[in-house]
Amino acid sequence: MKFEDWEPYYISILSDxxxxxxxxxxxxxxxxxxxERDDVPLLDSLCRGHEVTICGNAPCLKDxxxxxxxxxxxxxxxxxxxxxxxxxxxxxxxxxxxxTDSFYEMSKKGTLMVIHAHGDNIPLLRNWVPRFEGPVIATxxxxxxxxxxxxxxxxxxxxxxxxxxxxxxxxxxxxxxDLDDRDVDxxxxxxxxxxxxxxxxxxxxx
Length: 206
Hints:
Blueprint: H1 3-17, H2 21-34, H3 40-47, E1 51-55, E2 71-75, H4 78-84, E3 91-94, H5 102-108, E4 112-117, H6 122-128, E5 136-140, E6 148-149, H7 156-166, E7 171-175, H8 186-201
């Protein structure tokens, strides 16, 4: 998704959550300085023309492991769950708030880490990013620049789906998503509502 198409959604998200754009932009600059890696060609090769399964971290994921196939993309903490159940994701989309030491192991084994910068995760970026040994892509929800990309999407899961569409996966299967979960705090509930809106905009009903 071109940034010009994404920006109206982004402006609405900033307003809804009372986020500050300059804080997102500052985090993106920090992330840019923490890694020079830009492994977009790897993401392209994993998605383009391939069946892709994108895994969220809802409790229902444990019941859907049997349908996971093709290129496996995990949203944040779903990566650790998959890894402990014998599935190493090909790609992890993460803002690092669900990161565990298993992320280092996956990175060493070749898992692509698509790391997202936003206004309140700078300490996480500084702690984790320099220690990843494998492939990395840096992303922002603000305007992209240099080797910091924006494929569209807001939370980890919907960013993964936007990217799979951007890189023309032949099919996108979505598992471990529960956008109707009521057992969450108001901020998380707002993110789930936005995920539904954004996914519907690119033709996905979850």
